[in-house]
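Backbone-to-sequence.
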């Protein structure tokens, strides 16, 4: 599966687009606020990705070897 079709990535894009739309419609979107919004969303996405990779690594190390 493509990494751009993952639920985490789609959710990050939804939050970014929604946040930008809210700031744009309230006419309060400045450069600093845009950078903060994207930084927070990107940080949350990255943290989720790192946590998921750690879980997969831990589970793969505890699985018994396949075959006999």
């Amino acid at each position: 599966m493509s990494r751009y079709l993952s639920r985490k990535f789609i959710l990050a894009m939804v939050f970014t687009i929604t946040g930008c739309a809210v700031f744009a419609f309230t006419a309060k979107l400045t450069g600093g606020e845009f950078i903060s919004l994207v930084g927070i969303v990107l940080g949350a996405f990255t943290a989720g990705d790192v946590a998921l990779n750690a879980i997969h690594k831990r589970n793969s190390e505890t699985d018994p070897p396949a075959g006999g």
